[in-house]
């Protein structure tokens, strides 16, 4: 007895037949029937074609009835012209034939192939009809001319072939804008201008629906004990440093990170890899503590010293700032924090990172704070530097760090993290670069690497974020981006609550007087003033220094890292009334007590603006920002701020009489400055000349 019966469906008729022979017979009969039907159909079509060719006038009149009067008139005019042209052509053709001087293309083709092309055959038939009619009437009517035109050419042929192929009329005949008054060719596209449909912006769910962070710091403080998971020792330390409650971003993000280490550092919650965390919160909202506290809390019970947390920042100054915060909270624990940002020589940094005794290397750091360049140097040149136990990768100023991805620093870090992934290691420290989840990949738990991203202007561009290779990211944000009706491409950002923004209409010549007015007459000190280039910062610094009256300093790449460090310290201590800086101090720098930011040169990009003005109004405090705008910059700047979600930009007009008192001294200063620059340039030239001649002498010796 057969175990299985396979039934094949062969149609209703076949189902009735039981034997295979009868089934195939039935199938054959069916196929024959179909073939016969098709034969008959094609015969009928041929007959129809002949009838149509013979009686073109009838078809034309039938078609004509369907056309509106205006179209008909237009067509008649066109056809009259064409008819005349055709008659002319035909007469020349006939003449040429009669004289035997020229041979037409069709005749040549016929001579070669023995047949005429299909289209030409129809055309010839029609020509014959015209000739007959001409013989009859000697004056062809407009109707006849139209009939000739309508039945000749591709229009009819295409229509017929379409009808026979599909069994439906050609839709191009019924579509407006596609009917050609001249059917000798077929128009494929319409003339109508169509509005291009805007593409709806669709964000991934994690970006579109973030965990919301309250914007108002002051009215949303959370007491330290209300945030779960922080040990009493750390709470004490916070209080000792004047932190009595957490800011909203800290109250949301700290528990979320601590939750991912509930089951220990080696595996994520429930054995799963923890989700990466992205935080987008305004400048000065306390993002640094939002990662420092949970990382210290998670690592403080560690037994072996290995690099478990790595914070990457774009500049030396920022790295140093974050390093100091880590150090202050790691104090009293076994944790060792090391900075690798190029402040010291490579060898000196290497000595603080690793130690080699005999053939054994060991890490001297639990937490490393680095800039991308130096980090890559240590990965490539320091063999003892290992990231194989890295648990947290913190990327601060994440949007800026994405822009520096061309340096491929992240790839190098990831490579170093999964370096030991040979597949033979079966310990819990085994690390294999995560791929698609399979039973095999889940069978051995491995220590996860979790990325923590922070920025005040985190990009919402999924394409850019994708470069970071995030794992099921979770976003904490104070701005909600609606996915509904969001066809615009502008990104919205959050501005600090205590910030008041002004623009000051100005001209190029008035800008130096304006800055003098703000510095000498208004009580906004200390002021942080931004220019768009280091040359501009230096010129302005010289001008204000020559003018005198207040202490000013410059901050740019013109200074060495040590000079910059000193300058920042003096500014923080209140020894400098105005710091003139390039965008080197625009991001992340936390200087307490900055009451006012002045954009001497208007920033070109919204992100630059947000970070610059974010140096004031920090930690829920109040602050003002002024931007000097030339008339030509006004419209674009206002639009840029409006699109970014600025709460309001106000106009601040400085009356000319306020500046007039400063003018005479300013003129004198310009002369003095010119002299000084000349002397300086002369000295520089002299110096250059001496050094060149010394070199030449040395070479000649
Ligand atoms: N809970 C808190 N209570 C009091 N002050 C705090 C608290 N948290 C942070 N601060 C202070 O707020 C200031 C700004 O914090 P932080 O530098 O972390 O801001 P940020 O969000 O990183 O800013 P930016 O985006 O500009 O880098 C710092 O001086 C910090 O000491």
UniProtKB/TrEMBL annotation:
Domain named Helicase ATP-binding: residues: 268-476
Keywords, in A-Z order: ATP-binding, Helicase, Hydrolase, Nucleotide-binding, RNA-binding
Source domain of life: Eukaryota
SUPFAM superfamilies: P-loop containing nucleoside triphosphate hydrolases
Database matches in InterPro entries: DEAD/DEAH_box_helicase_dom (IPR011545), Helicase_ATP-bd (IPR014001), Helicase_C-like (IPR001650), P-loop_NTPase (IPR027417), RNA-helicase_DEAD-box_CS (IPR000629)
Function: RNA helicase. ATP-binding RNA helicase involved in the biogenesis of 60S ribosomal subunits.
Keyword Nucleotide-binding annotated: yes
Domain spans labelled Helicase C-terminal: 514-660
Polar residues bias (residue ranges): 40-61
Keyword Nucleotide-binding in annotation: yes
Molecular function GO terms recorded: ATP binding; hydrolase activity; RNA binding; RNA helicase activity
Catalytic activity from the UniProt record: ATP + H2O = ADP + phosphate + H(+)
Pfam family, one: DEAD
Top-rank EC class of the record's enzyme: hydrolase
Full protein name: ATP-dependent RNA helicase
Enzyme Commission number, as recorded: 3.6.4.13
Recorded family membership: Belongs to the DEAD box helicase family. DDX51/DBP6 subfamily.
UniProt biased composition (Basic and acidic residues): 125-142
Acidic residues bias (residue ranges): 143-152
Description of its domains: The Q motif is unique to and characteristic of the DEAD box family of RNA helicases and controls ATP binding and hydrolysis.
Gene3D superfamilies on file: P-loop containing nucleotide triphosphate hydrolases
Organism, as annotated: Astyanax mexicanus
Region (Disordered): 1-24, 36-104, 120-184
């Amino acid at each position: 007895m057969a175990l299985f019966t396979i039934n094949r469906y062969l149609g209703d008729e076949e189902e009735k037949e039981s034997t295979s022979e009868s089934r195939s017979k039935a199938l054959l009969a069916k196929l024959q029937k179909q073939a016969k039907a098709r034969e008959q159909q094609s015969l009928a079509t041929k007959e129809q074609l002949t009838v149509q060719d013979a009686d073109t006038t009838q078809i034309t009149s039938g078609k004509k009835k369907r056309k509106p009067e205006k179209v008909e008139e237009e067509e008649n005019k066109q056809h009259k012209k064409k008819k005349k042209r055709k008659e002319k052509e035909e007469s020349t053709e006939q003449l040429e034939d009669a004289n035997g001087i020229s041979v037409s293309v069709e005749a040549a083709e016929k001579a070669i192939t023995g047949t005429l092309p299909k289209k030409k055959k129809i055309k010839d038939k029609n020509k014959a009809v015209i000739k007959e009619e001409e013989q009859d009437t000697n004056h062809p009517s407009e109707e006849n001319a139209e009939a000739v035109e309508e039945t000749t050419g591709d229009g009819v042929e295409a229509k017929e072939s379409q009808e026979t192929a599909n069994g439906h009329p050609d839709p191009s005949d019924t579509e407006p804008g596609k009917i050609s008054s001249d059917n000798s060719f077929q128009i494929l596209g319409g003339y109508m201008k169509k509005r291009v449909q805007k593409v709806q912006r669709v964000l991934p769910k994690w970006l579109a629906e973030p965990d919301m962070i309250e914007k108002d710091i002051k009215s949303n403080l959370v007491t330290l004990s209300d945030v779960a998971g922080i040990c009493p020792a750390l709470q004490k330390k916070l209080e000792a440093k004047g932190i009595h409650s957490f800011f909203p971003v800290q109250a949301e993000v700290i528990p979320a990170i601590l939750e991912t280490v509930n089951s220990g550092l080696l595996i994520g919650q429930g054995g799963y890899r923890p989700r990466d965390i992205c935080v987008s919160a305004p400048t000065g909202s306390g993002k640094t503590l939002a990662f420092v506290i949970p990382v210290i809390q998670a690592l403080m019970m560690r037994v072996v010293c290995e690099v478990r947390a790595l914070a990457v920042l774009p500049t030396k100054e920022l790295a140093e700032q974050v390093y100091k915060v880590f150090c202050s909270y790691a104090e009293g624990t076994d944790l060792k924090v090391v900075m690798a940002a190029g402040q010291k020589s490579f060898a000196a940094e290497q000595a603080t990172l690793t130690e080699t005794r005999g053939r054994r290397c060991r890490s001297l750091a639990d937490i490393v704070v680095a800039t991308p360049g130096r980090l890559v140097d240590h990965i490539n040149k320091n063999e003892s530097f290992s990231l194989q136990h890295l648990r947290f990768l913190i990327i601060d100023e994440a949007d800026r760090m994405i822009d520096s991805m061309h340096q491929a620093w992240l790839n190098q870090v990831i490579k170093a993290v999964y370096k030991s992934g040979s597949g033979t290691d079966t310990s819990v420290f085994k690390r294999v670069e995560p791929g698609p989840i399979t039973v095999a990949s889940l069978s051995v738990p491995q220590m996860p690497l979790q990325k923590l991203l922070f920025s005040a202007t985190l990009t919402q561009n999924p394409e850019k974020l994708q470069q970071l290779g995030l794992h099921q990211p979770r976003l904490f944000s104070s701005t909600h981006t609606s996915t509904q009706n969001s066809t615009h491409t502008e990104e919205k950002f959050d501005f600090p609550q205590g910030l008041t923004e002004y623009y000051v209409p100005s001209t190029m010549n008035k800008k130096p007087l304006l800055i003098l007015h703000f510095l000498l007459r208004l009580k906004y000190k200390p002021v942080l003033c931004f220019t768009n280039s280091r040359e501009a910062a230096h010129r302005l610094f010289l001008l204000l220094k020559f003018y005198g009256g207040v202490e000013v300093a410059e901050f740019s790449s013109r200074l060495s890292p040590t000079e910059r460090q000193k300058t920042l310290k003096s500014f923080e201590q209140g020894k400098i009334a105005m710091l003139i800086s390039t965008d080197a101090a625009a991001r992340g720098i936390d200087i307490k007590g900055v009451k006012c930011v002045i954009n001497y040169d208007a920033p070109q990009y919204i992100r630059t603006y947000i970070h610059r003005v974010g140096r004031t109004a920090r930690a829920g405090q109040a602050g003002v920002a002024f931007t000097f705008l030339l008339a030509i910059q006004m419209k674009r700047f206002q639009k840029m701020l409006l699109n970014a979600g600025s709460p309001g930009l106000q106009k601040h007009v400085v009356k000319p009489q306020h500046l007039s008192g400063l003018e005479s001294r300013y003129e004198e200063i310009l002369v003095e400055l010119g002299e000084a620059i000349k002397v300086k340039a002369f000295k520089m030239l002299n110096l250059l000349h001496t050094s060149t001649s010394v070199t030449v002498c040395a070479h000649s010796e």
